[in-house]
Write a structure and sequence with these properties.
384 residues, alpha/beta, Rossmann fold, five-stranded parallel β-sheet, binds zinc ion
């Protein structure tokens, strides 16, 4: 990971680069920053930079043998320790060493912008919380005792130092205090007050601030998401509150909302004037192919449409939480959602969510719903 891939954080990058050129790299550091600010990506980029054999313009080259391995998070002298817990494959005594492949995959998929909950979700551990155990500390001590394979600096990155349990912390104190020569230990953490004081006092603190809205906006635009305008990127940045992960999640939510809006509107149009069954059939096929969770959210979106139409009918259209396109649609559609059908449509959508959860066949379900909607919209049309 090169510095140039990091979102914002110019000042922190410059400080780190200066420390290297001034030979002032502390052997134990604590990168402290809130979720989504980039503390872990910065730690990795820094370690890659330190070990790059062809540093240029304040960044690692990305191409030397060391960088190539770092880019894959798989350098033999780069070790990661992170919280783990039992899951379907590791049923007892979890430790980082047993999850190395999963961790690398997870880092790759997210370009090192990982979150604690995202990691647990990736491991499929349900609601269990992870920890860093004495077993992990033993691994660190063992790794630090070995000679570096090929790198100038052997690096240990401990992701979420606040998850070090008491015995792991105690075991590590000596290593943190006096790491062997040419060793870099980087603790990454989000909550300073949760790190055991004897651990945090041994590390040089590098504060990673929340990202600025401007940095998030620019990074979103740099991703070249199709259809994302400057104004939308700005709005997302404000909502993301300095958290890059949050910005990406919001972007996905926005996309899904837009998809649901367009599909639901098409669906209702085809049911309203069912002249062309082929189009309706094609749309049913599209909906059937969505994953179950997406189908549930699509149907739930339908409930929102019906609910919004009722609000519009009652003269409170301004109060509907929706974007302009949605509002315009609700105003047009509202007259046809009335006493003749509103209750039944609402009930059908609700039941459909229930059936999807219980593995109903989606093709049959959406076809059946369509035929019922055709009748119900006919009734609504007569009534309006
Ligand atoms: Zn390099």
């Amino acid at each position: 990971m090169q510095f140039k891939k990091i979102v914002g954080q110019q000042a922190v990058k410059q400080k780190l680069i200066n420390a290297v050129s001034g030979n002032r790299v502390a052997h134990t550091m604590l990168f402290l920053g809130p979720e989504g600010a980039g503390a872990l990506p910065l730690a990795i980029a820094f370690a890659q930079y330190v070990n790059c054999t062809n540093k240029q313009n304040g960044d690692s080259c990305g191409k030397c043998p060391s960088c190539v391995k770092y880019e894959k998070f798989a350098h033999p002298d780069l070790h990661f320790i992170f919280p783990t817990t039992t899951n379907d494959t590791v049923k007892k005594d979890p430790e980082s060493a047993l999850f190395t492949n999963e961790w690398r995959d997870y880092l790759q998929k997210n370009q090192a912008y990982v979150t604690q909950n995202g990691w647990y979700g990736y491991l499929g551990v349900g609601n269990k919380q992870g920890s860093i155990y004495a077993r992990d500390a033993n691994q660190v001590i063992k790794k630090l005792g070995l000679k570096a394979y090929e790198a100038e600096y052997k690096v240990v990155i401990i992701y979420l130092a606040e998850k070090l349990n008491a015995s792991a912390s105690n075991k590590l104190l000596k290593s943190l205090e006096e790491p062997p020569d040419n060793t870099l230990i980087i603790l990454v953490a989000e909550r300073y007050e949760m790190i055991i004081p004897t651990v945090r006092s041994r590390a040089q603190l590098v504060k990673i601030p929340r990202l600025s809205n401007k940095d998030i906006q620019q990074a979103l635009l740099a991703e070249n998401f199709s259809g994302l305008t400057e104004v939308q990127a700005e709005q997302l940045a404000v909502l993301a509150n300095g958290n890059w992960n949050q910005a990406l999640d919001l972007k996905d939510e926005n996309d899904e909302n837009e998809f649901n809006f367009l599909k639901f509107r098409d669906w209702m149009r085809l049911c309203f004037r069912p002249a062309d069954y082929l189009d309706l059939y094609a749309l049913i096929q599209d909906l059937s192919r969505l994953g179950r969770e997406k189908q549930k959210r699509f149907l739930t979106y339908g409930l929102k449409v019906i609910h919004s139409c009722l609000i519009v009918t009652n003269g409170l259209g301004d109060k509907v939480p929706a974007n302009e396109d949605e509002k315009n649609y609700f105003i047009k559609f509202a007259p046809f959602i009335n006493a003749a059908n509103q209750k039944q449509i609402y009930q059908l959508l609700n039941e459909a969510v229930y059936h999807i959860e219980r593995n109903a066949h989606p093709g049959i379900l959406f076809a059946d719903l369509s035929f019922q909607f055709i009748e119900l919209l006919k009734a609504g049309r007569k009534f309006s």
